[in-house]
Amino acid sequence: MQFKFYESFLPTYIPLTIVELCLQEHISYEDIFSNLDLSLDDLRNKHFKLTYAELNTLTLNCITALSSDELSIKVGKYIQLHHLGIIGKLLEYSPTLADALHILERYSLLIDPTIWFKVEQQDQLIIIHYRKMIPLGDTYQFNQYSQEVLSILIIRLLTNFYDIKGLQLEFEFPTPVYSRKLNFLRCSIDWNKPETRLIIPIINLEKKSLINKKESEFYQLIKQAEYDFKVFNSIKKNWIFQVLGLIYSHINKPLNTKDFVKLLYISRSTFFRKLQEHETNYEDLIQYVRMDFASKYLIQNRGSISSLAYYLGFSHPSNFIKSFKQCFGMTPKQWQNKHNETI
Predict the structure, then answer these.
(1) Cross-referenced PANTHER family, in alphabetical order (predicted)?
(2) What's phi and psi for 3, nearest 5 deg?
(3) DSSP category for residue 124
(4) In what order do the strands lie in the sheet with 125-132?
(5) How far is CA 137 from the centre of its chain?
């Protein structure tokens, strides 16, 4: 089973924003577009789409060129509502905080299909789970960077429009040396937590926007976003891309199908029917993502095989080794040695 995404289908909103930041920082055009047959005019064309490989290369070029300990703060502060297309407009016109959270959860794929949001209620708290999904198992060295950018962006946007009290931010990473520079965010911050999430006391949920807005404009935008959402998911490649990304974002603890389909806003029967169209099933896709991730991870020599096995959700390293051998015809160690010899 192989999924290749050579088609151009990814929006340019966020990549264009990071490119503009690079240019503002006097980074050369050649460095930004190295190894790419792209131009700034391409990215500024609202109908232009990127391939998955182009998105990865462009993002890596920009982040490498902007390299600094506080990169996430710089990028998170730079992105504004007008950089986010229809999502930015919807957030601006959302009558209540509950509406704004629904926009993030349902329509974020319209600006970046590799971003995942899930909003849920627990006791007297609203919890926003989110992450940058890395589809197809590509290892991504800027995981903490992407989580911090998303956190900064969400908190900035929400607190600009709503008077939110008692906001809490939890990161799944160790405390960075620049942690104090995140104190400009209007929330408490804790590190070394099980996952990255934003916690809002439920008393804030029905908060009205601080800015008077025309609800008629909001509902017109909702109609357009819903249409775009359905068009995106009607395209087979787009849909399976999102499915693989969701699996990746839960790679160490795969969701059951009941919870998984909720994130796709479809029924279980529709989910299984669509998988049949791709001649696969949910369990095989989980295995595909795990093995694809493992194969790349091992080539990069990042940690022990046992730690990789547990990270991928296997109950014991022996189970991982058996699955890997079934997939690639050799053990993880043999795979690692083979590719080290060719480097």
Answers:
(1) HTH-TYPE TRANSCRIPTIONAL REGULATOR GADX, HTH-TYPE TRANSCRIPTIONAL REGULATOR VQSM
(2) -125, 115
(3) T
(4) 115-122, 125-132, 197-201, 168-170, 188-190
(5) 13
Using DSSP's 3-state secondary structure scheme, residue 297 falls into helix
265-316: pLDDT as tens digits: 899 999 999 999 888 999 999 999 899 888 888 887 667 899 899 988 899 9
Token pair listed for 142 = 């800027």
Three-state SS across 22-80?
A: HHHCCCCHHHHCCCCCCCHHHHHCCCCCECHHHHHHHHHHHHHHCCCCCHHHHHHHHCC
99 C-beta neighbours (distance < 10 Å), count:
17
Tokens of 96: 């209540």
Residues 6 or more apart from 38 whose CB is under 8 A from it? 50, 54, 58
**How many Cα neighbours within 13 Å face the side chain of 331?**
9
Under DSSP, the state recorded for 168 is E
For the whole model, what pTM was predicted?
A: 0.81
Q: Please name each of the domains of the chain with its CATH number.
A: 1-67 (no CATH), 69-232 (no CATH), 250-343 (1.10.10.60)
